[in-house]
Amino acid sequence: MIEAPIQIRKEDNQWINTGVFRQEAFRFKKYGYFCSDYWGTPGWLEYWEKHLEYCKKGFEYKGRKITGHHYMYLNFCQIQVVITNEDSRSSKKETTFPDFWDGDYDYYWALEIARNGICSTNSQVNSTEEERLDWNKWNDELADIRKELPDSYSKSENYLKVKKKRDTLSNVILDRLGLGVKPHLDFLNGGHHMIVGKSRRKGYSYKNGAVSANYYNTERKAQIIIGASEKKFLYPKGTMGMTSDYLNFINEHTGWRKSRDYVDKQDHKKASFRKKTNGIDIESGYQSEVFALTFKDNSDAARGKDGILVLLEEAGAFPNLKESYGAIKPALTAGMYITGQIVIFGTGGDMEAGTVDFADMFYNPVAYGIMPFMNVWDDNAEDSTCGFFHPVTINLEGFYDKQGNSDIKGALGYEMARRKLILESSSDSTAYQHHIQEFALKPSEAFLTVSTNDFPVIELRNQLNKIIREKLMLIKGTPVTLARGEKGKILATPDLVNKLNPIMHYKVKGLDLAGCPLIFEFPSNPPKGLFKIGYDPYRQDQSTGTSLAAIYVYKGVRKGDYTRNIIAATYVGRMQTTDSVNRIAEMLAELYNAEIMYENEVPDVKKYFERRKKLHLLAAQPDGVISKNIKNSKVARIYGCHMNEKLKDTGAKYIKQWLLEERDFDENGGVLTNLDYIYDIGLLEELILYNKKGNFDRVMALMQLMFQIEEEDLDKVYGDADENKELKAEMDSVLANLFKKN
Predict the structure, then answer these.
(1) CA distance readout (Å), 667 to 659, 664, 671
(2) CATH of domain 194-390
C-alpha cells in the first residue's frame, strides 16, 4: 500500500502518483485478495458495494477523476504485461494488473464523453450544477436559432455570441480533464458512437474487454455484443476471450460472482442461475449477457439486438462494415437518443477488404453519428475532424514512465530510426510501408493502403487537409449558372448571393443533389484541344437513385499561359432527368471548345447529342489506348469509352502517373506535382478511398480525361503557331501556290 499523496497531476498535465487509482490492484498483488473482511459480513458488503459504485460512476481523488470503465480495468482485470530489465533490452511477459497510461485515460474519457456528454446528469465528467444549467441553456438557444434561420444560422451574430459562451464553458470543463485529444465542441452533448484507429500493441482487446466485463457486472439485463468479420478476431485471443478471462477472475476473486447456469459458452455467456419455484426450474439472477457474433456473410447478425455496447473489432478486415453498422444502429436508437453505443476499432497493418468503409467512417464521423475529434495527428488537418486515434508514440514500450506519461519526443526519435533502418535494409518498399501502417504516427499512415488503391494516399490526404483547412475549394472555385445568351453563346454567371450549392464531398451531405458547375479557370479564346472533358453519366433509370453524374474539364498546355495540367471546371450532381446533366456537359464543351469523353455504356448521352445534332462535341473512342491495353478488343462504338476491369486498371495507372508528374518547385525548393494543384475536395476524397468495387463517379470521369491525354501526342502544345490546323493547312497551300508561280 502507498501513502495517499497530495498532488496527482502537475499544471503541465504530467501525471504524478497515479497509484491512487490502483490501490485495489496493489492490495491484491501484495496479499492475494481484495477484501480482508469475511464473506457476507457488513464490512465485506460495504467494501464491494463501494467499489461497484466506483466501477459505475468513476473514481475521484483530490479533484482528479478516472471513469468507471478505467477503474475496473486498472483494479479488477489482469493482462499480459511486458516486464523490462533496466540493464538490457530483453524483457518477458507476466500476468498482472495493467499500468496507468495517459493514452488509456484519454480513451476512456473519450468513450464516456461520446456516450453521455460533459454536462448531462448521467455524465461522469465533473461539472457544477451552475455549469450544467448554463451549458444546457446555451445549447437550447443555439437549437432555437438553427430552427429560425435554417439556411444562415451560422452567420447570425446572436448565434456566434451564444456559441462563444457555450464553447468557452466547454473548454473550461475539458481543461479540467486535461485530455491529450480534442473532442469537437459542437458534439459534447452525448449520444454518439465511437470509431478508433490505432497503431499496433496498444492493448485495445484488453481495454474493451474491461468495458464489456464492467457492463456485464454493473448493468442488469445488459446485452454486450462483440462482433468481427470472423471468429478468429474474437476468441480465444480477441476481445471475447479477454472478457471471458475477466469474468472468471471476477467470479474467483471478488464479491460480484455471477453464476452462468444456463449459458456459459465460448461465444455467449449469461449471468443467471436456476431457481426452484413451486417445483419448477426458473431462470433468475442478473441476466446480463455477452455475445460474440460474426458478420462476414451476414450483415444482419446483430439486427434487432438491443445492446448497451456493441464492439466491432478489426474494422480494416470487415468487408461489410457499413452495412453491419447500419443494421445495428436503429436498434440502439430512440428518437434523438441512443440506448447503446457502437465502438468500432482497427489496427493499421490489418487493413484488408474493409479498409474503404473503415477509412470513410473514420474521416467522416459526423455522417455516421460518430463522435468527431479534431484531427491533431495528420499534417495540416487541425481544422478537420476524424475519429479517435492512438499513435505509436503514445505509450510505446520503453518510452513512458512509471506514472504512465508518454515520452513522445523519445518515442518519435526511436520510431524514425526504426523506419530508417527498415528502409535502408529492404530491397523494396513493401516492408517499409507495412511497418508504417502497423506503427502509425497518424491516421493517414494507418490508412496508407486502401484495398487495391495504388494512388499516393498520404500526399492526397495532405492536400485534402490543406484544402479543407484553407477553404481553397471555394476560394479557387466559383459556383456558376450556365445559360445560352445571344447567338447561342454560353454564359457562365458567377453566384454572387450564395444561392448555389456545389456538391463538395464524396459522402453527400444534405438532400439537394442537383449541385452546380464550379469553375476554377474561365476560358479565354481556347483553341480546339486545349481543354478536354471527362464525363461519367448515370442511367436514366437511376435519376431517382443515389448515383451522381461527374463532369470534369481539364486544361492542357498553351504557350504563354500561367496554368497548365489542371482541373479547370467540374460538375457533380444528379438532376430530375439525365438530359439536364447532358445539357451541362454540352454547354461546358462549347464554353471550353472541348470534346467530351464519356462512359459509352450509358446510351442516353449519345442519343441526346444526336437529337441536338452535336455529335461533334463527343470525343472519338480512344482506339490507341484500348488496343494497347486490351488484346483483340471488339468494341467499336465510335464515341466515348467502354469501361471494363482492364480499362479501369489502366485508367488508375494513368491517374497515378499524372498525379505524381513533377512540374514545379515551391518556395522551399520542394517538388510540386499535379496533385498539388487539385482543389476539389470530393475528387481528393474519392482518390483516397478508391477501389474497383465501390462507386467513384469523380474518379471515373478523371479516367476519361486520362484516356484522352494518353491518346493524343503528349508533347503537343496549343499556342500561336499550331492552334488551328485548318489555318495552317490553308497557309501551306498559299505558300505552295506562290512557290509554283515564282
Answers:
(1) 20, 10, 10
(2) 3.40.50.300
